[in-house]
């Protein structure tokens, strides 16, 4: 199983900020034949290069904000792939994409591809339609902005960076060794972001 990370600068309010301040991870996951694209962000070209001609089973966005979805409709159209987001983010989607169509994700939905399965975990917080995608076969979870990457977890945390109760309940059930592949920053593990915080017993990083 191959997991390719493509880092781009995220477009916010029509501007592209410095990569170090506002970078966004897209993930291309699969084998030599079939892949899924997670969170295409605002640049299709480097992601299509990473795909390298493989069949794209789906393009999935972990939430409906522009910085996660900007390139999604064009990419899905070009690659003849279905585009999936959670319907609770429909309003956010339409603010950027109008009537562009998508297929609906739902909680506990299983998406099979390349000999493995992604399970959708609805984790509202960053947006009401935020989801994480858990791959049991490779012990990894793609979290979008529900959990931040390693270097994003240091220093003072703002309230919006702390997962909501729904996210805590869901993610605290995963093994502590589960790899967290976030929408921003470097990979980490569920254990590294403190299971006691995720389970609601505290919010400090101590």
Automatic annotation (TrEMBL):
The keyword Glycosyltransferase does not apply. Its EC number is 3.1.2.6. GO terms for molecular function: hydroxyacylglutathione hydrolase activity. This is Hydroxyacylglutathione hydrolase GloC. Keywords: Hydrolase. The gene is gloC_3. The keyword Hydrolase applies. Residues 23-184 form the Metallo-beta-lactamase domain.
